[in-house]
């Protein structure tokens, strides 16, 4: 099946009178690393949150893996999904946050096995075995029994990635995963993401790491003020931006 | 460079605290005067206190007090947490019901509520189960359902729930929104998120004031003597109504209340320590360790934890 993993057509979203997304059109192909860049407040986080239905869109159409997000279509009528059904769809989409958001009252291992056990109803053994593999993959096999606070920011973010992967998602959303990190810790997180890209994961990455976007990204979208200003291959957009706003933004971050 | 192993150990005269010694001396003196008065004043009737402290009536009262405290507190906690979750729910029906409940029970004195429950039979002579406005299936005489114990439980428990709801709400709101977001993103339902992620973290904020609530509940149980519930104060009153040894018997009751609240304070300490896990990189000292440190603080203050730990300890709170 070659349908795009994410398809967004004219997506609008407002908070009260503040229009944050003003018609987003884009497609994310399977296996693609899709980078989303733009100034603060341009609506990048909001768009990611719409994709896994943490926010409800006001108009337009948003689908993941061919299915509408947050709605069920029956004939030509749309029905809002119940909380439980929306939660079910979120399982298949992993999300990694700027501030890690690990569960502080649980050990690293418990963080990783919580959702597989509670949500997918896996046995502790199965969940644990996968967690061991995943922690090894992100280079933290020795830290299973540590609590999040005992880890560095880079380690915490790698645990967060392992936690998201434990649900075996078909799509991963990264919201500025390295922005809260000390510069010397950024590399270890990007390495894990790079490996994930090599393994063929579909990823949408909001980032200010232009080096990563250029090297790993397959497409790049520049968003400003709730619209897509420019999109293309990262190399092209970054070296030869077409729009004034893109140029102005890039001159500041590059 | 140097072969001095302790080259970097600081040797300094520690800060002295002469006024602490003076204050201690004054307090010891006052205490001695008080004890002397208490021992020599015959009105205290120490022999009477000794005679009744472990008498069966008093012990029954102690037991009843402990029992009501536990049951009313459990009811209050469970109902209070449910109310707080309702209050924060996006469902306006639930949140308004919870607000109304809290408004009512916090706005009326618990003593009035107790007497009200005890006299429920005046208002509704019997309690029946059935279809609203339709046939009834079973029916009971209210007076046989609302025994003094049930009245005490309803009065104290329902009232406590209103306070626990506020405490629990503060706890839930203290948990970082990112936690709910991460949990939802993993596909956890609202209820699972609440139970597995939010409430355990809210506990750190909920537990300390709950400890105070338990202690205060233990003392508030004395109010249920008005509905003839034979708890500690009621039993004490029964005895001195007969013997007129009012003061010594009130001292007996006070000794028991003090003993029980002291136990609770120690228990509260350990529970707080338990819920602190994961929030600080080092564990808080145990009760005994802390006691020992406080006793020896005259010489050198206990080592303060690094400031980052202190920050961490409160990081989750605000
Ligand atoms: N829940 C909300 N309620 C009200 N306004 C919101 C909410 N979430 C986001 N906004 C507003 O929407 C706008 C876009 O926010 P968003 O977080 O999507 O921007 P962003 O591109 O991710 O920016 P940043 O780079 O700072 O993360 C901002 O003006 C923000 O204040
Ligand atoms: Mg953002």
TrEMBL record, chain A:
<dbReference type="InterPro" id="IPR017871">
    <property type="entry name" value="ABC_transporter-like_CS"/>
</dbReference>
<keyword id="KW-0067">ATP-binding</keyword>
<dbReference type="InterPro" id="IPR003439">
    <property type="entry name" value="ABC_transporter-like_ATP-bd"/>
</dbReference>
<keyword id="KW-0547">Nucleotide-binding</keyword>
<dbReference type="GO" id="GO:0015424">
    <property type="term" value="F:ABC-type amino acid transporter activity"/>
</dbReference>
<protein>
    <submittedName>
        <fullName>Unannotated protein</fullName>
    </submittedName>
</protein>
<dbReference type="GO" id="GO:0016887">
    <property type="term" value="F:ATP hydrolysis activity"/>
</dbReference>
<comment type="similarity">
    <text>Belongs to the ABC transporter superfamily.</text>
</comment>
<dbReference type="Pfam" id="PF00005">
    <property type="entry name" value="ABC_tran"/>
</dbReference>
<dbReference type="InterPro" id="IPR030679">
    <property type="entry name" value="ABC_ATPase_HisP-typ"/>
</dbReference>
<dbReference type="GO" id="GO:0005524">
    <property type="term" value="F:ATP binding"/>
</dbReference>
<dbReference type="InterPro" id="IPR050086">
    <property type="entry name" value="MetN_ABC_transporter-like"/>
</dbReference>
<dbReference type="InterPro" id="IPR003593">
    <property type="entry name" value="AAA+_ATPase"/>
</dbReference>
<dbReference type="InterPro" id="IPR027417">
    <property type="entry name" value="P-loop_NTPase"/>
</dbReference>
<keyword id="KW-0813">Transport</keyword>
<feature type="domain" description="ABC transporter">
    <location>
        <begin position="6"/>
        <end position="250"/>
    </location>
</feature>
From TrEMBL, chain B:
<protein>
    <submittedName>
        <fullName>Unannotated protein</fullName>
    </submittedName>
</protein>
<keyword id="KW-0029">Amino-acid transport</keyword>
<dbReference type="GO" id="GO:0006865">
    <property type="term" value="P:amino acid transport"/>
</dbReference>
<feature type="transmembrane region" description="Helical">
    <location>
        <begin position="61"/>
        <end position="83"/>
    </location>
</feature>
<dbReference type="InterPro" id="IPR000515">
    <property type="entry name" value="MetI-like"/>
</dbReference>
<feature type="transmembrane region" description="Helical">
    <location>
        <begin position="21"/>
        <end position="41"/>
    </location>
</feature>
<keyword id="KW-0813">Transport</keyword>
<keyword id="KW-0812">Transmembrane</keyword>
<dbReference type="GO" id="GO:0022857">
    <property type="term" value="F:transmembrane transporter activity"/>
</dbReference>
<feature type="transmembrane region" description="Helical">
    <location>
        <begin position="103"/>
        <end position="125"/>
    </location>
</feature>
<dbReference type="InterPro" id="IPR010065">
    <property type="entry name" value="AA_ABC_transptr_permease_3TM"/>
</dbReference>
<dbReference type="Pfam" id="PF00528">
    <property type="entry name" value="BPD_transp_1"/>
</dbReference>
<keyword id="KW-1003">Cell membrane</keyword>
<feature type="region of interest" description="Disordered">
    <location>
        <begin position="299"/>
        <end position="318"/>
    </location>
</feature>
<feature type="transmembrane region" description="Helical">
    <location>
        <begin position="247"/>
        <end position="271"/>
    </location>
</feature>
<keyword id="KW-0472">Membrane</keyword>
<feature type="transmembrane region" description="Helical">
    <location>
        <begin position="145"/>
        <end position="165"/>
    </location>
</feature>
<dbReference type="InterPro" id="IPR043429">
    <property type="entry name" value="ArtM/GltK/GlnP/TcyL/YhdX-like"/>
</dbReference>
<dbReference type="GO" id="GO:0043190">
    <property type="term" value="C:ATP-binding cassette (ABC) transporter complex"/>
</dbReference>
<feature type="domain" description="ABC transmembrane type-1">
    <location>
        <begin position="62"/>
        <end position="268"/>
    </location>
</feature>
<keyword id="KW-1133">Transmembrane helix</keyword>
<dbReference type="InterPro" id="IPR035906">
    <property type="entry name" value="MetI-like_sf"/>
</dbReference>
């Amino acid at each position: 099946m070659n349908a795009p993993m994410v398809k967004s057509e004219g997506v609008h979203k407002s908070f009260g009178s503040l229009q944050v997304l003003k018609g987003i059109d884009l497609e994310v192909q399977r296996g693609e690393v899709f980078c989303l860049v733009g100034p603060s407040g341009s609506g990048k986080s909001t768009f990611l949150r719409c994709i896994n239905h943490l926010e409800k869109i006001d108009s337009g159409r948003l689908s993941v893996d061919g299915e509408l997000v947050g709605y069920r279509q029956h004939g030509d009528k749309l029905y809002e999904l119940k909380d439980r059904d929306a939660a079910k769809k979120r399982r298949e989409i992993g999300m990694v946050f700027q501030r890690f958001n690990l569960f502080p009252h649980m050990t690293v291992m418990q963080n990783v096995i919580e959702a597989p056990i509670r949500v997918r109803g896996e046995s502790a053994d199965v969940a644990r075995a996968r967690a061991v593999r995943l922690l090894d993959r992100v280079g933290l096999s020795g830290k299973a029994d540590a609590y999040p606070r005992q880890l560095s920011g880079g380690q915490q973010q790698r645990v967060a990635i392992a936690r998201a992967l434990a649900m075996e998602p078909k799509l991963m959303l990264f919201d500025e995963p390295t922005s809260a990190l000390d510069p010397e810790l950024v590399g270890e997180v990007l390495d894990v993401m790079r490996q994930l890209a090599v393994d063929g994961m579909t990823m949408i990455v909001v980032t200010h790491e232009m080096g990563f976007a250029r090297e790993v990204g397959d497409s790049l979208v520049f968003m400003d003020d709730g619209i897509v200003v420019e999109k293309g291959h990262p190399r092209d957009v970054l070296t030869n931006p077409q729009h004034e706003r893109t140029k102005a933004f890039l001159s500041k971050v590059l | 460079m140097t072969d001095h192993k302790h080259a970097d150990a600081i040797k300094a005269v520690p800060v002295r605290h002469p006024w602490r010694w003076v204050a201690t001396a004054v307090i010891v003196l006052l205490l001695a005067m008080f004890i002397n008065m208490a021992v020599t004043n015959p009105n205290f009737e120490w022999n009477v206190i000794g005679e009744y402290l472990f008498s069966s009536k008093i012990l029954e009262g102690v037991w009843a007090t402990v029992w009501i405290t536990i049951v009313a507190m459990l009811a209050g906690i469970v109902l209070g947490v449910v109310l707080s979750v309702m209050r924060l729910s996006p469902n306006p029906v639930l949140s308004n019901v919870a607000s109304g409940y809290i408004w009512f029970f916090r706005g009326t004195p618990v003593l009035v509520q107790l007497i009200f429950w005890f006299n429920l039979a005046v208002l509704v002579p019997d309690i029946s189960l059935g279809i609203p406005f339709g046939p009834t299936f079973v029916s009971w005489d209210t007076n046989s359902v609302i025994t003094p114990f049930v009245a005490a439980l309803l009065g104290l428990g329902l009232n406590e729930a209103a306070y626990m709801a506020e405490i629990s709400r503060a706890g839930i709101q203290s948990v970082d929104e990112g936690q709910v977001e991460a949990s939802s993103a993993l596909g956890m339902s609202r209820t699972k998120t609440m139970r597995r992620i939010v409430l355990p973290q809210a506990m750190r904020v909920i537990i300390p004031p709950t400890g105070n609530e338990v202690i205060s509940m233990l003392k508030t149980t004395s109010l249920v003597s008005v509905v003839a519930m034979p708890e500690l104060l009621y039993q004490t009153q029964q005895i001195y109504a007969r013997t007129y040894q009012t003061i010594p018997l009130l001292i007996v009751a006070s000794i028991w209340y003090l003993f029980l609240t002291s136990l609770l304070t120690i228990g509260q300490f350990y529970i707080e320590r338990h819920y602190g896990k994961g929030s600080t990189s080092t564990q808080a000292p145990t009760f005994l360790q802390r006691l020992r440190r406080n006793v020896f603080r005259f010489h050198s203050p206990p080592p303060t934890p690094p400031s980052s730990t202190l920050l961490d300890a409160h990081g989750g709170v605000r």
